[in-house]
Amino acid sequence: MTHYELIGSRGCGSAIVEAALRLAGLDSRITDIPYLKPGPGRDRLLRLNPLGQVPTLILPGGAVMTESAAMILHLNDAAPHANLAPAGGGLPRARFFELLVRLAAAIYPTYTYGDDPVRWTLEGDAARKLRETTDARRELLWRTIEEQVGEPHVLGEQLSALDLYVTVMTHWRPRRAWFDEHCPRLAAVADQAAGHPRIRDVLHRHFSGAGD
């Protein structure tokens, strides 16, 4: 295999990596599957990624990556001209790593446990409480990022993969109207990135017709 294959589902975090691949200009193929639905697509996904999660990225040569932040760092190395991350040796790169980890390791899990709480706890009050607490934790985390956002992009003048995360994730709970009210700088960052033609095409493919 001489190209990348991204296995994902529309509206999911695979949109972030798809946009990164588009910005990088790397030869790639997108395979959309209903990743939670039993069938051949999920069977193949489970063979590649036992956790059954998307995005899953197959590299040229067949190696598999299963974490979006790791994919971003790999694609930055593979296509440094895309400037998915700042060059080394300065404060922007340190800020990039800090926020990338917060997005991937702190905010992302609030969806893992809050989207379908009955997978992790009893139905009823326990599930409602888990949903409420993960929603509240997510809003707090977004507010901490809001305090660090530059203009017109997360890191200031340079568009980076952080903007891809923000732009995609503002389509998810607590939804765009919440960002407009409580995190207007993040909302502005999302709008700025969404104007990039390659990013706009990915957002249209994933979210066109989807309610916010």
Automatic annotation (TrEMBL):
UniProt keyword annotations, A-Z: Transferase
Family annotation (Pfam families): GST_N_2
Where is each GST N-terminal domain found?
2-83
Q: Which GO terms describe its molecular function?
A: transferase activity
**Keyword Protein biosynthesis set for record:** no
Query: Source organism's superkingdom?
Result: Bacteria
Q: What is this protein called?
A: Glutathione S-transferase
